[in-house]
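note to self — DONT lose this again. spent like an hour looking for the file last time. sequence + predicted structure for the chain T wanted, 238 res
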Amino acid sequence: MSYNHIIVNTDAKSPIAEAYRVLRTNIQYSNIDKQIKTIVVTSSGPMEGKTTTVINLAVTFAYAGNKTLLIDSDLRRPKIHEFFMLTNKRGLTNLIASRGEYKDYVLLSEIQNLDILTSGTIPPNPSEVLSSNAMKEFIRKASEDYDMVLIDAPPVGIVTDAAIISTYVDGTILVANSGQVEIEAIKRAKELLNHVNANIIGVVLNKVRKNNKDNNYSYYYYNVGISKRKRKRQREII
């Protein structure tokens, strides 16, 4: 993996890159009363594109001039360091264990305004690490120093990590692979997040095939910032 896999960096004029910009705008205007600065991105199961989504979204925010921190909290199968070709010897878990200054563990990316905190050493107790007071305090401090903090988390339908993080961030985005995920899996993921009162600000439906005259391409559909009335109706339907 490399920067070449980040489509908003390599093909800024593509429909997918534009869709990420639309998602960024929708997030910025999704809550008028409270600014959303910390977001966890998860999915119902593996291989649905959550990591690709959170990386491209982070780059999109950075390109717009927002000081952005991208955190890999997938402490079971971390991938972000591979995309950015960074070392993963020290990262989030090492920060939490040391209770040190988080800035000492943050790495600079080649993209202006984008900093990275890799997962660090794989721990035997990921859920305990993510639910710790030290983790919550770190996110609080980071939200004061950055315009946007984006967190990649494991699938919520498999482990509790994403649900835990959703309790202390401003918003949660659920990613779904249109060609893979089953309806019941999405329902279950949504129920798990609702159970902890997560603020689900939107759903990303990816890998949808759309035809045009020349070729087929994948694009992303976003439903972010729905009104409370619509959200209530959505819960009745789903």
